[in-house]
């Protein structure tokens, strides 16, 4: 019922920038919190940043001051602007959205992931 499609990943040199986008589509009532998570090989998936429907944001300490999360509610899209990228930011980045599709409880949905590779 809900699809999340990410775009914007790629290869960049250390110190460079990338902008990720994630658009939600399908049939639903409301999208609550949206966020970005990442998972490097051999590691657990970790939170990068989240943003509520009202625009309140939360960041992992490792990305504070470098990454900015934003959303366009009219387009059901969340963005992640990544500046000052470091090799340790190399991961598959996943979009997440907490979505209410009916009168029941909301559920979490995930995108397919987009690779971000930062070369030193």
Total strands: the figure is 11
Strand fraction equals over 45%
Helix proportion of residues, in percent?
A: under 10%
Q: State the major sheet.
A: 7 strands, mixed
What is the approximate shape?
elongated
Rg, alpha carbons: 14 Å
Overall average pLDDT? 96
Structure classification: mainly beta
Number of helices: 0
H/E series = EEEEEEEEEEE
CA(first)-CA(last) distance: 40 Å
Low-confidence blocks of residues = none
Defining key terms:
mainly beta, 4-stranded antiparallel beta sheet, 7-stranded mixed beta sheet, 58% strand, 0% helix, 120 residues, single chain
Give a verbal description of the structure.
- It is a single chain.
- The model has no long low-confidence stretch (mean pLDDT 96).
- It contains no helices and 11 strands.
- Helices cover 0% and strands 58% of the residues.
- Strands 2, 4, 5, 6, 9, 10 and 11 form a 7-stranded mixed beta sheet that branches. It has a 4-stranded antiparallel beta sheet with strand order 1-3-8-7, with no helix packed on it.
- It starts with a strand and ends with a strand.
- With 120 residues, it is an all-beta fold.
């Amino acid at each position: 019922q809900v699809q999340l499609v990410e775009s914007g990943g790629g290869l960049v040199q250390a110190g460079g920038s990338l902008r990720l986008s994630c658009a939600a589509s399908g049939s639903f009532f409301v999208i609550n919190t949206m966020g970005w998570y990442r998972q490097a090989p051999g590691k657990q998936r970790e939170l990068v940043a989240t943003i509520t429907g009202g625009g309140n944001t939360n960041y992992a300490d490792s990305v504070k001051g470098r990454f900015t999360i934003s959303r366009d509610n009219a387009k059901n899209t969340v963005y992640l602007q990544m500046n000052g990228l470091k090799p340790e930011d190399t991961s598959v980045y996943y979009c997440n959205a907490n979505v209410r599709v009916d009168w029941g409880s909301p559920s979490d949905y995930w995108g397919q992931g987009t690779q971000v590779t930062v070369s030193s």
